[in-house]
Amino acid sequence: MRITVVTFLLLPAAALLAAGSRCFGSSTQQGHEQAVEVKIDNFSFSPTNLTIAVGTTVTWVNHDDIPHSVVSSDEPQVFKSKALDSDDRFSFTFTNAGTYGYFCSIHPKMTGKVVVQ
């Protein structure tokens, strides 16, 4: 009975920790997958530079009042979003190690980088 109670108490705490880290845009671990959020706000990507593990999914969320996009700088392009309106999201899972530059095709001075290890 003691083991059941301990297990019961640990599961909600783990769920709360995972939910809390998602709120702040940090990496979260669910099995072997990870998820990271990049905010698009005030004509910038935040964080601008990101280092992640292979298999991590990055989701860009537009918090600006105008459209933005997320386009790989690589040739050939590795990923490309549609124009993201306010609160729209674009996700990409990085399955290979490397450095991936990206920019907003609507506002090319907006740039970022994802390093996958």
Essential attributes:
117 residues; alpha+beta; five-stranded mixed beta sheet; four-stranded mixed beta sheet; 1 helix; 9 strands; 38% strand; globular; disordered N terminus
Which CATH top level class of the largest domain fits?
Answer: Mainly Beta
Percent range for helical residues?
Answer: 10-25%
Element pattern in H and E: HEEEEEEEEE
Instruction: Tell me what the CATH architecture of the largest domain is.
Output: Sandwich
Question: Which spans have pLDDT < 50 for at least 5 consecutive residues?
Answer: 1-31
Strand content is: 35-45%
User: What oligomeric arrangement do these chains adopt?
Assistant: single chain
In one word, what is the shape? globular
Structural class: alpha+beta
Roughly what is the average pLDDT, rounded to an integer?
Answer: 81
Largest sheet: 5 strands, mixed
Q: For the record, what is the CATH homologous superfamily label of the largest domain?
A: Cupredoxins -  blue copper proteins
Q: What Rg, in angstroms, do the CA atoms define?
A: 17 Å
Give an account of the 3D structure.
This protein has 117 residues and is α+β, with helices and mostly antiparallel strands. Helices cover 19% and strands 38% of the residues. The chain folds into two domains: 30 residues; 85 residues, Immunoglobulin-like, CATH 2.60.40.420.
